[in-house]
Amino acid sequence: METVDKLEAMFQKAEADIEYVEKRLKFDFMANAREAGTFEGNPVQLLENLSAIKARHAALCAQVEEIAAEQKRSMDSIRAHLDTTVQLVQQLQNTADVQAVPTEQPQTQAQSESQNMHEEVSEGTFETVPRSVRGNLKLNDLNTLYKQLSEYFSDKNRGPISTQRMKKLNMKVSDSALKTLQHLKLVELDKKGLVSLLARD
């Protein structure tokens, strides 16, 4: 749009220059006629040529105006399409936000279930376990293993796990820790020594 405006300004200046030249020629012809009584060259032909130049210039000005009008229509159309696109994007975002809301609740429930599944063994509860069962086991090591087992069994599709498997998963497993968890009824050991996590009351 700025380029078209510059062209219009240039054509307007050129038109003013042509009019000035035409007036200047007429004035010079009249002055020469008064002084010498004759004309050098053919003033009529010069004026006709000048008129032809003005006509071509006027045609070019009309074309520039048409270009400017067409450019304005194009810009208006682009703005209209852009506004429509922005509105569609906003509607899609609003729709996506509305659809995303229901998925938040199941995630929150799953997180809540995971938190309820694992609660650390308190020191008081730990002290109720006979020394013959827990041996030299430390409370921190017990809670570490219990947390690891809780995270492992958070997948409901997983079955009982063996001691060898726990070691491969870098769990802090020991016989005293498993016996202590079994004594507290937090885990269950079957005849094969496979461990299952029990739900806490």
Automatic annotation (TrEMBL):
Keyword Cell cycle: yes
Entry superkingdom: Eukaryota
UniProt xrefs under Gene3D superfamilies: 6.10.250.1380
Compartments, record wording: Chromosome, Centromere, Kinetochore; Cytoplasm, Cytoskeleton, Spindle
Molecular function GO labels: microtubule binding
Keyword terms, alphabetized: Cell cycle, Cell division, Centromere, Chromosome, Cytoplasm, Cytoskeleton, Kinetochore, Microtubule, Mitosis
One Gene Ontology biological process: chromosome segregation
One GO cellular component term: spindle microtubule
Secretion signal span: none
Domain Ska2 N-terminal: 2-111
InterPro entries: Ska2, Ska2_N
Family statement: Belongs to the SKA2 family.
Protein name per UniProt: Protein FAM33A
